[in-house]
Amino acid sequence: MYKENTMALKVVKFGGSSLADAEHFKQVASIIKADKDRRYVVPSAPGKRFSGDEKVTDMLYACYNAVRAGENIDELYGKICDRYNSIIEGLGLDFDISGELNYVKNTILGGHSGRDYAASRGEYLNGLILAKYLGFDFIDAENVIYFKDDGTFDAELTRQELSSELDRHEYAVIPGFYGIMPNGTIKTFSRGGSDITGSIVAGAADATLYENWTDVSGFMTADPRIVTDPVSIRTVTYHELRELSYMGATVLHDESIFPVRAASIPINIKNTNDPAAPGTMIVETTTDYDKDRIITGIAGKCGFSVITIEAERMNTTIGFSRRVLEVLEDFNINVEHIPTGIDTMGVVVRTEELEGCREKLFNSLNRAVKPNMLTIEDGLALIAVVGRGMVNAKGTAARVFDAVSSADINIRMIDQGSSELNIILGVDEDHYKDTIRAIYNEFYGK
Ligand code: ASP
Asked: What is the largest CA-CA distance in the chain?
């Protein structure tokens, strides 16, 4: 099939929960068929059908581990076969996948193909079924997604090979999550990596839109486990999304932003179970923001520690901060934030990074900068209030601080990026949820 010169072209990625069983496959097919511009489809492996169910990818990892431990995998692999067979049966498809299933089992049993090979077969097999069901061509990711010797993604080679391969197919399924190493072995991206494949395909196809279909209607303005029924985000910039994702808002794999961002392709997060919902649109820039919604989203994380250093005349001591940061670098500790005063410097780090080196670090800092006071306090939660609307709205910071203090919560740290895109607050972990609720109610409460 050769591609015509059409204008709109959409790459659609479906997550594991969207392809967990035959019913979901039908729903996915009806979404794809509803729009002829949805030409390239990137599937995940079958995910959980209900809470407590197992993801096929996890079962494949378990098979690999079992083979290494010299255990029998018949029962476990049988469960994987059942998942695929019940999808094929439920769809009424005339497709015999038993040869493929046997081949994969024997290859895993052979023990030379590696862990990533085993994991990748979830997407591969699902892709075969989906291509058959849709009547689309199947492009094996091992022929178009390349990694370099050092294990990093080879963007250049992939773009070249993938674009010319896509040109040969009007409609195709390309399984997510994996590609090939120069030595011919299969390699996967990190978990959730089908999002990355989708983005790569969208970039190579010069798509007009990358639709990422999942089981929620996009990004929420706050974590629904903390705020009841939060409003969903209609439009978010890549920049805002980086801030929100970094602070814990997860719907999309972090790395999946780069290939589409470079090509200015927007991403639309959509809900397979509610296709009519607009979802969240992720774009490069927008001037469009709802004036009542100055804040795009609120996200946060617990588990931070703050190292506070006090030293007389710190502000006039040249090289003070550098020496502090050098010590942290020597310990291979990542610095998250550096709130500073005239004679004090705070360094916020993840508490887990201090594990096993707390005392040595303390002593090294003492030696390096001879402070008047040095403390390391744990139990800090960071909350990011993110919004491109903040630049144009006076008094946003005041509203944030007022809301938090009205909830009787003490703010231990404040950091505002110079781009005015976010305000970061540090509070005691005990107040983490209440702080998010207080800010949410201030900006979104009725
Ligand atoms: N199936 C893989 C995982 O569970 C990749 C993906 O779903 O994106 O991580």
From this structure: 79
Q: Ligand 1, residues 17, 41, 115, 191: which to mutate, most atoms within 8 A of Cβ?
A: 191
Measured from the Cβ of residue 337, the count of other Cβ atoms closer than 10 Å reads: 19
φ, ψ of residue 206 to 5 degrees: the values are 55, 50
Which residue of 12, 19, 42, 57 sits with most ligand 1 atoms within 8 Å of its CB, as the best mutation to test the pocket? Answer: 57
Dihedral sign computed on CA atoms, order 296, 419, 262, 116: negative
DSSP 161-183: HHHHHHHT-SSEE--SSEEE-TT
**pLDDT tens digits, one per residue of 312-344:** 888 788 899 999 999 999 999 999 989 888 889
Condensed to tens digits (0 to 9), the pLDDT of residues 116-135 reads 999 999 999 999 999 999 99
Q: What is the pLDDT of residue 284?
A: 86
- Residues within 6 Å of ligand 1 by CB: 16, 44-45, 55, 57, 122, 176-177, 191-195
From the CA of 130, how far away is ligand 1's center (Å)?
16
Distance from C-alpha of 66 to C-alpha of 255, rounded to nearest angstrom: 30
- What is the predicted pLDDT for the residue at 291? 54
Instruction: Decide the pairing of beta strands 413-416 and 422-428.
Output: antiparallel
Q: Which residue has the tokens 């061509």?
A: 137
Q: State which residues of the chain have pLDDT below 70.
A: 1-6, 287-292, 418, 446
Q: What are the chain's domains?
A: 10-283 (3.40.1160.10), 297-444 (3.30.2130.10)
In the reported structure, the alpha carbon of residue 45 is separated from the centroid of ligand 1 by a whole-number distance in angstroms of 6
- Provide φ and ψ at 7, rounded to 5°: -80, -65
Report pLDDT for 290: 53
213 touches 57 (CB < 8 A): no
What is the pLDDT at residue 382? 95
Closest CA to 241 of 217, 213, 271, 218: 218
Rounded to 5 degrees, φ, ψ at 257 are: -75, -35
Question: What residue owns the CA closest to ligand 1's atom 5?
Answer: 192
